[in-house]
Design a protein that fits this description.
three-stranded antiparallel sheet
């Protein structure tokens, strides 16, 4: 009898283990099914949105986007899609002004002469709505750098530099404390280390203002560049940007000082070396210029600046 009870006890344990395993498997299956359903529902909203866009059913789109965000509060794509939709909505404007970039020309049928233009301008109300949605999204999904960058872009396009810079500063502050959590489009991991990735993004936002080529926007370019040097002192991009500001402003010696700082941070950055060589020539320091051009060829003999460096060295030999 003792032996039979012992066997029964073992059987009971086996049954118990099997029962627990079955429950765990069941829970895993339910969790997977729930995740798949969530994904399917998110994709379904996206597909419905695209279909309504084709139909130009604006009233229905508004309702769908509201529903998507309400039903899927943990889906960042609901906020991103909504913001993109409102930001890209345009007002049709007909005027007697000459057509600008992207405008259509109006011609007088009787005279054949230009009579005005048709332009597609952003609606301020929709632009604000897009910005508000992304502001909300940065608090819900702060690890998504594409959302931060999208919000900064909206402020940039709206002419609100102060809000743009404030957004970039908030993004960088969060990124410094949560580097391992950061994600990009569709939640994908960053393609390179976070500090390098973000430093390059700051450079691109600064470049937008530098390319406008006016004193006010040059100052904005400098603000972003200086912020970059403070936040990413181990990368050369922002230091080179500050040097560029001073060079364009006419202070070549100060430009050289900042380029040398960039070179100290990364002695193998060939763009910085090229800039150092060219500016050294401008201030009459041929010996230093030769040294920088030679370093480019040594560091990256087949790189994008190698040919230019060789040409510069050939010119120096003739002098």
């Amino acid at each position: 009898m003792v032996g039979s009870r012992f066997v029964l006890q073992l059987l009971d344990k086996k049954v118990l283990k099997r029962s627990v395993l079955d429950q765990i498997k069941g829970l895993v299956c339910v969790a997977l099914l729930f995740a798949l359903l969530n994904r399917a529902n998110g994709e379904d909203y996206a597909a419905r949105f695209e279909e309504l866009k084709k139909q130009k059913a604006d009233a229905q789109i508004d309702a769908l986007l509201d529903e998507w965000r309400a039903q899927k509060p943990n889906d960042p794509e609901a906020w991103i899609t909504s913001a993109n939709y409102y930001f890209n909505k345009r007002q049709v404007m007909i005027s007697t002004k000459s057509p600008g970039k992207g405008d259509f020309k109006l011609t007088d049928k009787k005279t054949g002469k230009q009579a005005g233009s048709i332009s597609f301008e952003q609606d301020k109300g929709n632009t604000k709505r897009a910005a508000d949605l992304l502001q909300e999204a940065t608090t819900k999904f702060p690890n998504r750098l594409d959302i931060w960058c999208g919000l900064a872009f909206i402020f940039q396009e709206s002419g609100d530099f102060d809000s743009e810079l404030a957004t970039l500063k908030r993004m960088v502050a969060y990124a410094h404390d949560h580097a391992a959590e950061l994600r990009w489009l569709k939640g994908e991991p960053l393609a390179e280390p976070a500090d390098r990735f973000i430093a390059k993004k700051l450079h691109s936002y600064g470049l937008y203002y530098e390319e406008k080529e006016n004193p006010e926007d040059d100052k904005r370019f400098l603000q972003i560049a200086m912020f970059g040097t403070e936040q990413f002192p181990n990368l050369p991009y922002a230091f080179n940007d500050v040097a560029q500001f001073h060079y364009v402003s006419g202070d070549k010696q100060k430009a050289l000082e900042w380029m040398k700082k960039a070179n100290q941070v990364d002695p193998k950055d060939t763009l910085v070396l090229m800039n150092l060589g060219n500016v050294s020539l401008k201030v009459g320091d041929s010996a230093s210029a030769r040294k920088y051009f030679e370093e480019i060829i040594k560091v990256d003999p087949n790189g994008e600046y190698a040919s230019e460096a060789k040409q510069a060295l050939a010119k120096l030999k003739k002098k």
